[in-house]
Amino acid sequence: AAQWLKGNNMAVAKMSLDPAKRELGAQPITPRLGPKPFVGCASSEPFSFDKVFSVPQVPGTEQQPANGASAEQEKTEQDSSASNTEPEKTDENSEEKTDNSPEMESTEDPPAEVSEPEVVQVKEVEEKKLEEAEEDRSDGATSIAERRKMYEHRSLSIQEDKAASPTPLRRRNSMKQWNGKEEEQQQQPVDGEATSTAKTGKRTSTVFGRVSKYRHLKGTPGHKSTSIENVRNVSRQLPGECDGFHGNAQRVAVPLAGPGGKIAIYELDKCGRLPDGVIPSLVNGSNIMDFQWDPFNASRLAVACDDGIVRLWLIPTGGLTEPINTPSEELVAHSDKIYFIRFHPCASDVLLTASYDMTLKLWDLTEKSESGKRECIILQGHTDQIFSFAWSPCGVYGASVCRDGRMRVFNPRKSTQPIAEGPGPVGTRGARVVWALDGEFIVVTGFDKVSERQISIYQKDNLSVPLNTVGIDVSPAILVPFYDEDSSTLFLTGKGDSTVFSFEITDEAPHICALSHHRGVSVHQGLSFLPKNQCNVAAVEFARALRLTNNIIEWLSFTVPRLKSELFQDDLFPPTRVTWAPSLSAAEWFVGVDKAPGKVSLQPEGMACLSSIKLSAKTEVGKAAEAAPSLEAIPPPHPGSSMMFRCDVTKQREKDIQKSLSARMEVNLSKIEYDTENGVDEEEWEG
């Protein structure tokens, strides 16, 4: 500013934007070239693409490398630069010794610690030496080829000999002990795997884990001609303890909306569209709480009402033709509302009722006292609402789930108090319980604190902790379970769901294995499974159910895909438990008699068994192998012709196999249609 005020004028300086020119002059400089792409470097080292694509650093700005790479870099610089003197070599050797000091520590005692100022001084000296060496090399390398060679060696020194993984440094004295420990650790899991595989011989998969025969089960709705249509006025106001829909091999029971406690009865052999008008039904006169068919009498239906009375109805042959309001028998079970009712699975005329008074009662429907009252067994121990009760397959034990979050196991004929107790579902919406694996495990469905539907499995002898718990989804509907003993398959669904969940229950972890779920087209109000003798074994059907939608009752078949469906699949259909006939009477059961249900085979007459076919095929193959000449039985020929003889035997076997196959194949030597056709007359070709 002072110069301008005095009157001095100076021209504005100009600068060149050409990057090839110096800052203080117009004379261009020679650019420093790096290695050309896809051109091998002039060195004895093996070629690698990592070296070609590596980006070299600018000379003079290189930082001091780590201990592991400094020694190698100095070696390459020593080879490339001829201007280095003997003192520099000694310095490099000393630096190599200091760099290799960790290796020395592995064999010798560690040196004394160096103070911090000395380390800083050593670093400064090394940096100065590196800068001087760089200046000498850059001055001496005047040609482009020398500069490029310097860059190549610099990049090679950085990229070579990378350690695969850092390994901890140990003394030689401890290496023997460490190697011994590693060998022991490597041998231990191998032995454990061998023992585990020897114990379990079940099929496993590396992708899906345990292989199940029912993994790809398929649910198929029945044909429209077998369904019942125009089902009207279905009730949706039943309590959560009621399944809402029940059926047997002959007929189904559907609760109707409105007053009077009506239940419609539909015959399964009368398929098609129902006529409009009055629906033939059972009029109970009170609100329905629960209902269930007698498992040993397809014509008897038990209905529990909110007045504490259980009404027993007998359906006439051919079904109902009009509404009726007079039951065949009434049982005054409780003075309060009834939650649910359950028939005994083995003994006839044994009925269990659960009431709002938090008691369970067992009734003998055949005996009456002089006053008209029946004797019963009262089970106690519940402190809140009882959600569900299930009999064990043998009919000796029973399990209940309560609103207080406890699960209890009873032996009714020996004690009115529970013999075992443990934690159950914590949710208060509802729960269900069912026995599995021949009564050794108990499966409970319920909710957690955030209303997620869950499945838990317990061991009968230990109810303190569940073996496994599986979450499904969040829904207000209670999961109603059905367990198939023969396939160990658990079917689950709820009111308003469109999916039938399928799980396999096993005695090994994780105990609950998911199968293929069936997803219907529309939602359903309930599902009722039929006994095993109602399955179509010829179609590989292992479970059959009736499905109630908003206005249709249809069949639902669960099958397993098999190639040889014309054979009886005995691996899928073992001898099944007879659940459609009683094994003892009510009087025998109340006295204390136990009799397990019998088992029958589901193999149809005239249908071959799959295992027998496989066994016969194995025996035929074994006989053929024994009849065929073996190479070991043939005496060894001369050394010069041994290979030729073996080739002749192999060719002879191939010819025998071809002859056997051609003998089995049928050759059709009849004329084909083309032989009988007439060609074009020769006169037509003339023109």
Explain the overall architecture.
- Keywords: Actin-binding, Cytoplasm, Repeat, WD repeat.
- Residues 186-206 have a biased composition (Polar residues).
- The chain has 687 residues and is an alpha+beta fold.
- The protein has a domain at 233-484: Methylamine Dehydrogenase, Chain H (7 Propeller).
- Helices cover 24% and strands 24% of the residues.
- The protein is built from 13 helices and 35 strands.
- The strands form 9 sheets. Strands 3, 4, 8, 31, 32 and 33 form a 6-stranded mixed beta sheet that branches. Strands 26, 27, 28, 29 and 30 form a 5-stranded antiparallel beta sheet that branches. A 4-stranded antiparallel beta sheet has the order 5-6-7-9, with no helix packed on it.
- A hairpin with a 6-residue loop joins β28 and β29.
- α3 runs antiparallel to α4.
- The chain is extended and about 135 Å long.
- The model is unreliable at 64-72, 74-78, 80-117, 155-208 and 630-634 (pLDDT under 50).
Distance between the termini: 117 Å
Largest sheet descriptor? 6 strands, mixed
Number of strands: 35
Which architecture of one domain would the CATH scheme give at its second level?
7 Propeller
CATH superfamily of one domain: YVTN repeat-like/Quinoprotein amine dehydrogenase
Give the percentage of residues in beta strands: 15-25%
Note poorly predicted spans: 64-72, 74-78, 80-117, 155-208, 630-634
Number of helices: 13
Helix/strand/pairing class, anyone?
alpha+beta
Q: State the shape.
A: extended
What is the CATH third-level topology name of one domain?
Answer: Methylamine Dehydrogenase, Chain H
User: Kindly state the mean pLDDT as a whole number?
Assistant: 77
Please compute the radius of gyration using only Cα atoms: 45 Å
Give the class-level CATH name of one domain.
Mainly Beta
- Name the helicity range: 10-25%
Subcellular location: Cytoplasm
InterPro entries: Coronin, DUF1899, WD40/YVTN_repeat-like_dom_sf, WD40_repeat_CS, WD40_rpt
GO biological process, one term: actin cytoskeleton organization
Family: Belongs to the WD repeat coronin family.
